[in-house]
Amino acid sequence: MTAAERPFRVIIVGGGLVALTAAHILAKTDIDFVILEQHDNLLPEIGSLLNLWPPTFRLLDQLGLLDAVQPVLNDIKRGIALSADDATFFADISPDSIVKANHGYGIKVTHRPRYIEVLYRTLPDDVKKRIKLRKRVVDVKVSDDGVSVECDDGTITEGSIIIGADGVRSRVRECMQAMAAGKPVPDRSTPPKSPYITTYRMLFANIPIPPGLETNTNYECASERVSTQILTGDSQAWAGIYEALDEPTSKHTRYTNADKDKILEKWGHLYIAPGWRVRDVYATHVGELGLINLEEGLVDKWFWKRIVLVSDAVRKLEPHAGLGYNSGVADMVVLVNKLRRLLQTEPSPTTKSLEAAFASYQKDRMKDEAGIHGMSARRARMTGWLTPMNRIMFKYIAPWFGLAQFNLHYVYAPIVSRVPVLEWVKENSLPQDTRVPYIHYPVLEGPSAKSSRRSSSGLSVFTGTIVLAAIAAVGFQYYRRIY
Asked: For every residue of 157-173, which 3-state class applies, written as one string?
């Protein structure tokens, strides 16, 4: 079969949250695809918290999943900031009401395994069959008219392009970068060099809601080089200890139960919510404790020939701002929009055409990368202080000047308003009368439908500029990009 006769086929490497969401997106197209997942099931061994922002709800609406995910979602109505050392109160805000007024959807959180279960359960049966488990990638190959992926079980999967959605230690990224540099693909047994830097690590737990604490509330307690957090949902809670490492590192670390015990022994005396200390809350944990490095950073090049990367394979965000999954979903929306548009005019696209589409995808996504990374980095350092200015910002400047509200209106809101939607799929529950209009909307007429663009008049540029200048004058400039 010649290249012109071969149907276009996408190989997605990685079967995590973004890949399952991509399966729903691609099921709305006529693009053939397969997903290769190295594990023997799709659920993580240890469940953790997942944050969903308004653009992700717009996508879920397009995919017909809003009703299905609703039972596993939890509102976050309040955010309370305290001292981890003595529980001194610093701030109390209502982020959900602000975000909902601005964008029509509020901020919600969910238990990761439950959300994954919903995404998988709601896939059509024929799409579920395209997910192949126990497919550990060892090598990829690229030719002028196609790609192939070899797994450690000896199977070879052929297609037109590879989408690397295989996470922080992406094997696809490792192979792509080696081939782009004209070097042999490293052996799988050699640990890959990480493009990301770890400044903090996190010990997390699933817990029952501690007596006396309000539901649907985010409690964050700050201190020098460490912070604690309890986020309460409708019927369960999640706890976290964020500890700054002695020195930032790019090395991957596998932690033991002894490492977890040392953290609890070291920080057990800290407050994690009003009336509650770390040692008392973690004693109630359900299931295993998780201890992971919180990598941060951005990859320079997201594609090469017929390979393109998404989500954690191109960026890693510290989780305080909850933007990791949401950014990965936005990657897939932009990428599939461009692929679909290309295939309408070129059913068997050349490598040159694909690279042009991939370059356009990266260019579009890079427009807000600095803002997304900045929000994530600042949130971590505002609570686990690395410098005296971090402490001053948390204790004095942020509460006095209302920085949390400012960020939601003038940093978070413009980024949210610019996130694209699927160009060809109708929104059934489009929020009306939002303070900050969305820029992108689906346009359903015609074969070359694109998402329409509207100017965003909900934010005053003049007002935003004045407030930004004021914040800069009191220390906002002390935050630096870390990638």
From this structure: EEECEEEECCCCCCHHH
The secondary element (H helix, E strand) that includes residue 324 is helix 324-345
Q: Which residues contact 205 (CB under 8 A, 6 or more apart)?
A: 238, 239, 240, 281, 282, 285, 286, 287, 289, 290
Bridge partners, residue 397, by sequence? none
Mark the ranges of the chain whose per-residue pLDDT is less than 70: 1-5, 44-47, 444-483
- Cα dist from 165 to 63, 172, 302, whole Å: 20, 8, 11
Burial of 185 (0-12, 13-18, 19+ CB in 10 A): middle
What is the rounded distance in angstroms from the CA atom of residue 378 to the CA atom of residue 17?
A: 25
Coil/strand/helix, residue 6: coil
CA distance linking residue 455 with residue 417, whole number of Å: 10
Query: Which pLDDT score is estimated for 43?
Result: 77
Burial class (CB in 10 A: 0-12, 13-18, 19+), 224: middle
pTM of the complete model: 0.92
Q: Look up residue 382 and give its two tokens.
A: 């505002």
Cβ pair 206, 238 in contact under 8 A = yes
DSSP state of 208: P
